Amino acid sequence: MDAVLKLAKLGDKAEIFHTLQGEGVSMGVPSVFIRSSLCNLHCSWCDTAYTWNWEGTPWSHEDDEKYQKQDYIVTHSAKEVAETVKQYPCKNVILTGGEPLLQQEGWTGLIKSLRATDPSYRFEVETNGTQLPDAFMSEAVDQWNVSTKLSNSGNNEKLRIKDDAMQFFAAQENAWFKFVVQSAEDLAEVQELEARFSLPKERILLMPEGRDEVTLQKRRLWLADICRDQGYRFSDRLHIQLWGAKRGV
Ligand code: SF4
């Protein structure tokens, strides 16, 4: 049987869209995003809480809004998703979520299907860094965008820091580490993780937390100074600048 993917539902379709990568080291690169549903973390400021904050669950979120699971998930076979992706004139594909590495079998089917059509398809995975990729994904993925969560996310450390997964990503030359920063006090945690897992400084990005332009503008000014002074790369949130918090763009 063909592997399946549980994807975020937008209208009556899966949330698959052609846009510019908004964050991280590939910011600005034309890309097709595939947004999977489900996440093992519950960040209080998550901008895709409709992938996990279901009605009846105890998790809290700044927005104080719960979602009916059946209205926000759509299931497709990997081949169906590949057919949708092929319609776009773009070979950079970003597997995002939620937490995409909860569905590795489905992504394996998708990657094989797309590369059978055209070997030049390139895949980035946006992960929270808690899940260990399997052998196929380890080889097949071109770029890991690892967003390890800090305590400002509201998740306890046991949930958000997994040594085996962090050690795996730290050893990959195609892994980049993007930390979401709310205040200058978060820097001590970044430095602790950098030392603990020997993360290469040149592949660490600091990105201001914010789901609107006013918040981002306040935070990017002091965060840019920190990045310059301490040698970290700065990441903005281009999609918020361009389109605000709108889904599917
Ligand atoms: S890990 Fe990502 S998708 Fe999951 S709750 Fe946190 S921000 Fe949202």
Cα separation of the termini: 32 Å
Order of helices and strands: EEEEHEHEHEHEHHEHEHEH
Strand-pairing-aware structural class: alpha/beta
| Helix percentage range | 25-40%
**Radius of gyration computed on alpha carbons:** 17 Å
Low-pLDDT stretches are none
CATH level 1 class label: Alpha Beta
- Sheet-strand content, in percent, reads 15-25%
Looking at the structure, the CATH topology is TIM Barrel
Please identify which CATH superfamily we are dealing with. Aldolase class I
The main sheet comes to: 8 strands, mixed
Report the mean per-residue pLDDT as an integer: 97
- At CATH level 2, the architecture is Alpha-Beta Barrel
Number of strands: 11
Strand order, largest beta sheet: 3-4-6-7-8-9-10-11
SS summary, helix count:
9
Provide the list of bound ligands, each named once.
iron/sulfur cluster
